[in-house]
Fold each of these.
Amino acid sequence: MLAATEIYQEEILVSASRLPENAATLPLSWARVNKDELALTGHVHITEAMQRVAGAWISRGNGQESLPSLRSPVLTGAGSCGAFFMAADGISLRAPGFCNINQLFDANTEQAAAIEVIKGPATSLYGSNALHGVINILSAAPAVENDLSVEAGPYDYYRAKYAYGSSGDTHGLSLRANATTNGGYKDDSGYDQQKLTFRHDFTGTEWDISSVLNYSNLNQETAGFIKGYKAYADEDLKRQNPNPEAYRDAWSVLAHSRASRELGDNHQLILTPYLRANDMEFLMHFLPWQPVEENGHRSLGFQGAIYSELGQWRWINGLDADYTDGWLKEVQADGFSPNQPAGVHYDYQVDATMAAAFSQFEWALNKLELSAGLRYEYSRYDYDNKTGDGPACAPEATACRFYRPADRKDNFNNWSLNAGGSYTLGENHQTYLRYANGFRAPQATELYRLQAGQQVADLDSEELDNLEVGLRGVFSDKLNYDLSLFYMTKDDVIFQDANRQNISGASTKHQGLEFNLGYRFNDNWYVNGVGSVARHRYDSRINLLGSSGDIKGNDIDTAPRHFGSARLGWEFNPESVAELEWVYMGSYYLEPDNKHSYDGHTLMNLRVSSQFSSHWRGTLRLTNLLDEDYAERADFGFGDYRYFVGQPLGAYVEVGYSFGR
């Protein structure tokens, strides 16, 4: 069952270098949600699992929609998703330049081997988008299993999960699939979702090859914001859906093969080609004129690296490449005004190329370990406008919202650097110091989906500098701790100004403390918790859309200064556990002027899982145990408070059967 404490000396992390390595001595801030924690959490939405990670908040929208936050505010806007590198087995879920804020629903997190998180800019193996951090979902390695589970919950929620695996001397396979239907808490809402992960491992005399196919499909009837101050606590409003016509349909495929072989005694070659495809269509219900957007892309990519072990040195040198054919179309069925007319607003195609070279080394001597890395990345966009150049409105429009730039090419050159060191204090404690620089190139939507007559978006890549110091370790195999103090500055931030034009040049500042603590009282009882105390502020005088004046020094909206969670667990027999979870969300501002805020909330959840026999197991999950009124996400826009409502007390029952025991 669940380990009560994570003994960091025994913890293995894959995401930093794409190979398993001892996480204790890594001079960076990381977290890992393992398969046992994922199984017990049984998350309906990814936010429930990510509550176990300090500094991470995946703000839940309706259904499977989300807005990510990782050592950052919850970022919104056309390219805000570009601040996070979200991956499956180290491969970005979406192509560089084509991120989507909801892209975590593409990954089979429900049946992953683990979710690994790197906070702040990652190592040189990661490029554009690894700005505030990395969320990497690891596929399960083949093992002998044949398990089926079914689950039921409130509001016509049903889910089935199946896992099959086999493992031999040279071949192993793993198949994990799940299907969910959810009637939705809100009126005229709900979704159907299917996910599949297939993995085949081959071990040969020279080559080892691991091939993975990920597939996901989502058909969602989306519920929009409800409006009005604290509307989430109004019994007459909280289940209403102001946008019963809203929907989101999305599917994705990501396939890769990872081939590795030894080159002599000291070197290993790893080659990873991959294919990526996805399509999405949704009603933009959050805009009064409600257009429909269709977007998608097809990608062919490659990762290659040579790992060298040279005595006290470990050296990684590699190349990454990605070619993507992407497109976007926005159409409005009915005219809203002369400035938001019916018809095609945007229709474009972008051929994007990314190429990068990187080098990362580690040097260890006794209790000291040093590391450093350098990456160069080139990005090029070839934009082709498929509709008329210029405004999408008739000549009589006075302030046309939509502008289609003429065909053009844009390219970006970026460097990133990281350097750090860790020192072992005694046998069970490590301290580290790290500097890292990260970047993200502008996203295609920021460059080519222009508004208010802007003919060209002359944008620079965003850059972030991170300095952090950390301390982690274990006392007497009972208490473990992981503390990280960070200071980050971000420059050339892309934003939309008061004239609705996309420009670069803003600066923000981020500083705080993240902690992870765990304590085992005895063989049966444990407690663990994570938390973040941080401030995220505007650090320049900018004429930001939605603000009324100088906002330098103000908190960035949707950036709680403190939040976290804690769990008390009782392992009442060797394969059974009960866990009571406390989730705390502090107050936060809703707009740049810091005049409107959300008070925050506190929730309790209870989970009990038990193995009844060699074949049968069961899990009971009670969410929002105290039936609190709260908002999953609060916002202020178009002159009103807006909320995604949190669900009341809910009971989920899962029964599983193992055919192979």
Note: The longest strand covers residues 343-365.
Amino acid sequence: MSWVRALKEAARSGLRIERKRLDPLLAVRGATGLALVIAASLWLFGPVVAASSAFGAFQAAIATFQRSWRPRPELALVSGTSLAVSTFVGYLTVSRLPLFLVLLAVWTFLAGLFWAAGPTAGLIASSNVAIMLVTVTLPASVAQAAEHAAMMIVGGLVQAALVMLFPVRPWGAHRDALADALAAEADYARRLRDDPVAPFDPLPLMEARDAAALTPRQARRRPAQLHGTRGLAERLRPVLASLADPAVGVPREGRARERVRELLGAAADILDAAAGAIRHGTPLDLPAHAVAALRTPDTEAILTGPVYRTSERLRTLLQDVLETAGATRQEETAVAGGSPPRYRERPDLLRMVPTVLRTLRAELRPGSPVARHAARVAVVAAVGYLLGDVLPFGHGYWAPLAAVMIMRPDFSQTYSRAVGRFCGTLVGVALATGVVRLGPADPLLSGALAVLAAALMYTVRRTGQIAAQACIAAYVVFLLGMAGEQWTQTVPERVLLTLLGGVLAMLAYAAYPAWETPRLRGRLADWLTAQGRYAAAVIRHYAEPVGKYAPDVREAILRARTARAAWHTAVDRARSEPVRHRGLSRAAADGAEEALAETGRVAMLLEAHLPERGAAPVPAAARFADALRSATEQGAKAVRERRRPSWDALREVLRDWDAERAAAGDDACGALAHQGAGLVLTALEDLSEALEPDASRNCGDSTPR
């Protein structure tokens, strides 16, 4: 993509306003906490301290709105406390420009690194640095700075208390994640009716797994409907695929195929009903036709052998889903009276500190996109503050503030946010200025207008950058007006310095980028390695039967999903980058992705038919698994070095397996393992064909779709 087209797409993204579901109750709760803090601060300390405390309460409310599985009160407390510390430390050095620039650079670099800990941590850290640039100018002494910091902590406490006292759909995000996983399974079942080898996107299952990690306090209060259903959704995935696939199931046409389509449709309807009950916390309403389809008595006469056993397994799993989705509060109490249910434990905040520090330290290496972002934003913040101090506008913090809030680790978000923030600032400042000029200069009125602007921002925050930034701009104008600044001191400088900050952010990314496009081959190699280990772990258990419970297979599939998600994220980012990379063409990327997806699908089918403990082992499967693991690791190295992966060693092992089967015969389990091994080899050969250097050179556009 050319620079002109990339900038045009980024501008469109920044100016886009989307139709999103609004959360008025959350907005009212956040605005109420803000109003309480402003009113108390005005009464006790005056308008200047009220402005600082309002920033703390405003940011704490935003923290509680972020997509996070951690309890919301914790996010509010972390946000308010970290902003208070930033403000107090910043005030101690703000009068000494060289020292403050060093502090700003270090503080901003650390905030940039926090994106490695997740988007919520990165947003809170970056927002605290940006707000600190404003709040350090408000106190007039160390004692006042301490007062301001204390009131910021109070703002976080107020927002945390309101979240606890007035919960708005407290388990909504967890319910949505689990319901989305079941809905994805339902959609998968419907697509399998028409396409027996349809792909499955595991992202909803990954989200549900993240949501299932709970703190001990959350585990004691978790609704009964959220107990155990995620594990059932995980087990449904290979069962649905195995039932539909013609390689291990029934032919593509005929009476048996029609029965399979009927079962898949019934499963989809039942899973949708369970997803709706979990999402809304309502009683389960089952479609009668779906229940009747599952209970058809002639299934055994139509489906035979492994396919019939798979259909019975599907019926059992669906029954378990229905029992869990229909759980009531009374059933939850009964469960709580016995032994506590198992759950994935999410560590508390103090126990998270060593993990976060290890994550940040791991990013301090050459080539890390997060480290490059941290260095980039630190330099821009220091340069922006220095330029703002030199220029004759006053209030030079607007330039670094805008830059810090704009910059993200990837190109498209940085540029789209720059456009959206500048245009939103123009709209917000113009509207707020008109309101201020029409009304009297009254701190109470300015505080009320600030609360109204914040409430609007909380309401429309998900609709687009320009709408949210317009509300934020108006909020800041009203808040600084409450602190005593005239509109003439704020409007011109804010517009010009915001433009300066946006230009600095875009120039910094152009001069010191962290493009995803050149790293696509590395992402693909990581996915190949993880997918090979997953398939090898599954095939090995045909030589070493341990039953359906195989922890190594579970661990391998989780790693494969993580690598797949990293690949798709890289492709999405590369799509909008103005970079041409000859190493991986669009056609090659699409073909390689399809081949690796097929490798994972075959492994999933084999996983659905893992032999029971005590079954006759298939020794050749172990040799193939070892060869597959080694071959995919060597193939990944070839992908990174832009060579064609070779599977000769794997082909030789499969040829020996063919000879053994011809001489000694094979049971059904061995035949299935051999068939799956052949399909895996075919998919890997397709990968090599997709990455053929001549094919890559013949492709014009080298950016993957």
Note: The first helix runs from residue 3 to 15.
Amino acid sequence: MTWLRAFGEVVRSGLTIEETRLEPLLALRTAAGVAIVIGPALWLASPAYAAAAALGAYSAGGATFQRTCRPRKVIALGTGAGLALSSFLGYLAAGRLVTFLPLLAVWAFAAGMAWAVGSTAGIVAATTVGSMLVTITLPTSVWRALEHAGVIALGGVAQTVLILLFPIRRWGAHRDALADALAAVADYARRLREDPTAPFDPEPLVSARDAAAVTPSQARTRPPVLHGPRGLAERIRPVVAALADPDVGAPAEGPGRDRARELLDAAADVLDTAARSIRRGTPAEVPPESIDVLRVDKDHEVLEGSARQAAEQLVELLGEAMEIARSGDESGKTPTPPGPASAEFLVRPTMLRLVPVVIRAVRRELRRDSPVFRHAIRLAAVAPLGYLLATRLPLGHGYWAPITSVMVMRPDFHRTYARAVARFAGTLAGVALATAMVQALGSGTHVCAALAVISAGLSYTLIRTGYAYSQCFTAAYAVFLLGMGGQTWAQTVPQRVVLTLLGGALAMLAYVVFPAWETPRLPGRLADWLAANGRYAAAVLRNYAEPTREHHADVRRALLASREAGAAWQESYDRARQEPVRPRGLTSREAGEAQEALKGFGRAAMLMESQPSRADVRFVPESKRFAEALEADTAQAAVDVRLHRNPDWRRVKEALHAWDGAAGDRSPVARRGAELQKRALDDLATAVSRTPLERDVSSAREEQRVRAAGEAEGDESGGARRGG
């Protein structure tokens, strides 16, 4: 992708309105937290204290809107504490560049490394850098610095108290994640009705697993309805795939295919009903016509063999889904079973026990090629540089430039540039709106305070519709907050616009100077996914050979590792497609073909997992031999892909040939799955196998194709403008 086209995609992405469900009650409660601290602070103290309290309340409230399954009160309280600490240290060092700039660089580096834990930690840590930069009033002593830090922390405490007193959609994030998992499988069943090989995005199942992890205290109060949906979705997904697949399930045409379509439709209806019940916390009734379809007649059922087995499995699993839908949100607490907690639920560490987890995660990212480490280096350089440049300009509030840089910078190229564009556009609209409101209503202290609270509420309401639209009201909020302290719009508006532009430009320039491109990392990500898929497929085959509890546990662990590697590949692939970087190792077309091949490989393993070995077949030696060959060849192929060598499937071919020669195949489903896996591996080899000359020619052709597509798009836009 050329720089011009990449920047066009950045602008489009930054200004896109995301279709999401608004949460006005949450926004109202959080805005009330801002109002609660501003009002008393204005009455009892001064506008400076009110601004400090508003800083803590606004930032802590915004943190509770992050997509996380941690309790909102914990997020608000932790954010308030982080803001207070960073503000206290910043106040102590403020006024002396020789002490403040090194402190700012170290704090910004630590905030950048917080992305090793996750996006929520990274975003919250960035807000603490912003609070360190905002010096509302220069303290004259350590006690005064501690006093202002306490006022800022009070804002986080106020948000926490409101969350405790007025809970809204308790367990809402968990409900949404588990309901989304069931809805995703329902959508998958409907797509399988028309396309038996339709792909499935595992992201909802990954989110559901994260939502299912709870602390021991949460486990005692978790609603009973949230216990089984994740596992149910996990079990139903391979069964509907096996039923729809013409190779191992229903025939491609005829009455069997029609019956399979009916079952898939009914499964989708039942799963959607269960998802609605979980999301709303109320019982729901499954359509009677769907229940009629799910009755399997032993004497007149048209499906036979493995297809009939899949249909019976599906009906049994959907019975559990119907129980979930009918139970809704029954009152009562979850009993705590005896024995170790980890045996009954996924354990999420408490905040104190999270410390060693954070240390290990940060330590893993302390390497030069890590995107998180490079992001931390960029933050540590840009924050002090932006502050130094802005303070040298003949403008006030120089902290706006580094705050802009810190808040828009992300570990990847596309989001950094898109947020920079969105923040500048939102700031322009926000200061224009604030200016108009001040001129229309006046600039008194109490008027500006009321307008600041209203702007905060609107910002929270739109926080998930797009960064630009939320930022519009955030900018207005900042202007009103400064107006509350006696500064006119003529002083703040030009400064805000110029310094926002400076901060966004520094953030963009930092990524060009010290980038963390994903394009060169694609071969490594592909190799990791290939090796993980190979281990998963081998575990499934070993379970066919010897279906034991230990082998079944191995299948589950390998599946989760494969899913994690696939998610890492998908994230890198999506980012690489948006980067203005010449392909290295894998062109975009080769990466796309390799991705489809590995999806087919994993799908074949999933189909085998959905058809467990029959009770009368306790040992399938051919399956075990093929598993060993498959794991060995995929592990070696992963090394070859990393080193840009062509993979070879010699062991797999020999094992499959020996399986063909074995007398009396006792597991036709496993044999068919092995054949599908071999076909997928051949497709993968075709996708990545190139001579050096072919690879260079392919890269050059792809660059020409992308350039031609960009020129054609430009011509079409120009023609449209001329036609208009």
Note: The chain has 28 helices and no strands.
